[in-house]
Amino acid sequence: MVDFPWIMQMEWRDLVFLHWPLPAASLTPFLPGRVPLDLWQGEAWLGLVTFDVTGFRPRGVPFALDFAQVNLRTYVRVNGGAGIWTFSLDAANALAVLGARLGFCLPYFTARASLRPEGDALAFQSVRRRHPACRCRLHYRPTGEVFRAQPGTLEHWLTERRSLFTVGWGGALWREDVQHEAWPLQAAEVQVVDCTLPGQLGLGALGSPLAHYARVVHVKGWPPRSVKRG
């Protein structure tokens, strides 16, 4: 972890992780040339994560923000370190979106998004405000016992990452770190009602995903820093 103070804190709640294996060639064109995909047994993985952000506040700010969010992402390895690359992040708070775009150079978009209980499940829906064709609607619920993914397993490889990479100001490669406890994962049942977000990458129907649920983690975040390829 970085050796200077964290600048923001929040909780991530009621997350669902959906994952699909894909040929590396289907995702490589959407990454900068200096950022290689991280592969599991020769395959790239596309991830879709929906959740509620609660208690989001920069350090020292007395008020907090709550909003629903959905991220489309894949996995990369830079200088030997495993990380996340996000293709899009849709969030239901314009202030958070503006801050993430200006301060972190992340591809955030303002959306009408919500995550609500529906019977014994959770219902998530999101529609991007300026591009309503970018939408996501799904229902999910946990089905198994809580477990912590063990190193060397696919579940650990997909979820236990604490660094995110993006292209920052001036074209520099930035690394942005977070810290939280190990994911309290559970198997999940998911019904994807309608999700067009993978279509941003020219992808069609993806089939049934590998699905996991996590109840909550408590997150601290650090400012971006430039990194050079080793």
From TrEMBL:
Top-rank taxon: Bacteria
PANTHER family from the UniProt entry: DUF2071 DOMAIN-CONTAINING PROTEIN (PTHR39186:SF1), DUF2071 FAMILY PROTEIN (PTHR39186)
Protein name: DUF2071 domain-containing protein
Species name: Deinococcus metallilatus
